[in-house]
Amino acid sequence: MSKDNQILEELTSKDYEHGWSVDMEVDEAATGLNEDIIKWISAKKEEPQWLLEWRLKAFKTWQEMKEPDWANVTYPKIDLQALKYYSAPKKSNKPKSLDEIDPELLQIYERLGISLNEQKKLQGIAVDAVLDSVSVGTTFKHTLSKLGIVFCSFSEAVKEHPELVKKYLGSVVPITDNYYAALNSAVFSDGSFCYIPAGVRCPMELSTYFRINAANTGQFERTLIVAEESSYVSYLEGCTAPQRDENQLHAAVVEIYAAKHAEVKYSTVQNWFPGDKNGKGGIYNFVTKRGICAGDYSKISWTQVETGSAVTWKYPSCILKGDHSIGEFYSVAVTNNYQQADTGTKMIHIGKNTKSRIVSKGISAGKSQNSYRGQVQVMKRATNARNFSQCDSLLMGDRCGAHTFPYIDIQNPTAKVEHEATTSKIGEDQLFYCNQRGIATEDAVALIVNGYAKEVLNQLPMEFAVEAQKLLALTLEGSVG
Amino acid sequence: MLTIKNLHASIEGTPILKGINLEVKPGEVHAIMGPNGSGKSTLASVLAGREEYEVTEGEVSFKGKNLLDLSPEDRAREGVFLAFQYPVEIPGVSSTNFLRTAVNQVREYRGLESLDAVKFLSIMKEKMKLVEIDQKLLSRSLNEGFSGGEKKRNEIFQMAMLEPTLSILDETDSGLDIDALRIVSNGVNQLKTSENATIVVTHYQRLLDYIVPDFVHVLYNGRIVKSGTKELALELEEKGYDWIKEEADAASV
Known about the structure:
The complex is a heterodimer of chains A (481) and B (253). In chain A, 25% of the residues lie in helices and 34% in strands. Chain A is of the alpha/beta class. The interface between A and B is medium-sized, with 25 and 32 residues. Chain B: Pfam families: ABC_tran.
């Protein structure tokens, strides 16, 4: 026991690995939130009038909304007037190629372990990196553009492809959707845009790395993915944030549109700063992610590995509008120390013969709280809808909590909905068994946890799966005591 | 190789072992027998370093080291292997992956380079024959959905892979049919060398028909009350444990 306590002590006092920030000259908005700030952001980004009007409409909507409080999380009220809503590295002046990107910026990414240069050459992944509010560089653009694929920063898309942005922006997550989505719509600074033309299978994984650098800046990025008929794309999102005392708000919106026979795979590995061992600091991750399977036989698949953030509050969802469309949600959410997570999904069956599958694996350690919240809704005309949900919780220690909140709403009698849930503990027996074979406790925990999460990790692209496995082990180090 | 002196151990304040003395030399097979609740499995667990048991008195030296000072994983790396009576299940972790982690951690401790996948698999194939275990079984989650016989065979297979110097078989015969018992025993016998030793913990003598012990010890009420050779086991089989209990109880009055 004392040995485990010692390990626990050592490792929980270990600092967040990505906890550093770089002093850069930044171009930022004044503190606070009002119409003028929104106009300032829009002007800064040289946006067209329609977008400014859209933002202002969102802001008006937001002002009439109330901050929701139904999630199973507690945190001090965020003073939204104390935040800055735009922060851009000053030197980053629209790079045309990677060579023009500020070396200091590139260095940040290298410390994070994603060198754009290297990624460009090695992995065959196109990366659109978002540092605070501006997208710093997009690799592989040329290769992609030959296929007619658009993969660029959101601001660039507004300039280069306004008709596409105008058509799809807010079509999946309307500005009225929820408090944080409305806020995002008013103040979003940048993000990624991805368009796959009909019949094109994107030949590489598209990847965005988000990173929060400046203090007291909310990051409000906006991602829009449009997959036209019979196209395919796999999209990766990874996040890290430097260590800070004040909590930082991250309220992103991701919208996915899948036309007939299109397939979109969206994978996230989220590693925002979780706060220290006493629960001080950390990111509030309040994100709205939703995809619509608009066409028949389309498919959207969400895979997420959530290891970071002080508070995670998100439900990547699918609207299954097209007949025979398929929605999937695979999730591993890990909480340690004082982290809180309330995450899950919504599967809305509208079309006939639609199918959804939910696999959620929660892991709680320390004094953390981990909730799965999922909704399966089968509408009147969704004949023969099928859903399978599996929600597992793994507890480590006796001071954490796991909660499951399934909501099922069936309006068509032909629906088949299954829900399975299990709760287990990492047993002393399992650990001792591993120890007896010569495996150290830390490695045993990693082994057991990875085994438990395997079904979800298997959904991730190879290089992401490896990273995710390491993150799981890192997050849970010393949590057995 | 293993010297146990006056070992006392308790669980949650209740004394279970009350002064065990035992000397095991390389090449020897010792059988520990005894009625239920005599402390047989406790002895096995204490030697392997299970934390629930508190050693209150005595010494255990293993290859010149104080075994009780070592963590469970270091004991394993030093060469102590426990074949569990009830092997645990680890969902999602294949036996192969589990063993590769184990073998490489043990090798690292012993200053050997870690085995790559190819080498590991070829050694595995070799050792699989010993206990007639199927590769398919090894790619499944560790012990999950295994039959009793498969679990025990897997234990002996792990023993073969880890090449321990001291193997402790805790009721390895329990839940085995006669064929499985033969296969498992056969594996254990083939692994026997003049350098390693085996402690067989069992309630019944039938296992000892297959794994022939050099010494048989009877554990009763936390002490070894009688030691002898193979013949002692046969006597126990015939007469049961009551006469031993009576002898021991009379002696302690």
